[in-house]
Amino acid sequence: MLIPHDTRIALDTVVDLVNTAPESEPPREGPADRPADGLGDVAALYAFAERHHISGVGTLGEKDLAAVRDVRARFAEVFAAPDPRTAADLVNLLVAAAGTTPQLTDHDGYDWHVHYFAPDASIADHLAADCGMALAFIIVAGEQERLRRCEAPDCGHAFVDLSRNRSRRYCSSRTCGNRLHVAAYRARRKEASA
Predict the structure, then answer these.
(1) Which pLDDT score is estimated for 19?
(2) Which end of the chain is more exposed for a tag (fewer CB within 10 A), N or C?
(3) Angle at 40 between CA 54 and CA 42, to 5 degrees
(4) What global pTM score does this model have?
């Protein structure tokens, strides 16, 4: 599946955004061990914007943080959508609410690509428009099943399966995948020695 550079960046951004939610982390023992929100405060939102090179952020406040958290929750619904129709309806709502204004641009050394947000858009509208259109690209390509959650029992991270045969099961083969393979190997060895 050929994905344009700007769409790939937006997909990486939406996955990272969804994975900042505390519910994307595995449940822990008690309330004190509850996973932290990756967007716990405005400083974390600034850090997220910087990490993903989100342009035109300006001054952010609590209102922006709440709006981004709302967009994050709606993106999580897209990853959980049972079928393409539901996913498309969710994406349509997000993109329409963001007031998309497609524009061609070639900034920061990148070739021509499309920004879907208005030049003065809030960070929430910026994310909803650009990331929503990236998800729309996946749905239009008939690839909604590539929007997944990690199958490791102690993980709930979202990811986009870009493998050729749509066979990726874990958010990371290095961590979740390797950990489960090692556990299965040890279980087989233990069973064989018993």
Answers:
(1) 95
(2) C
(3) 50
(4) 0.83
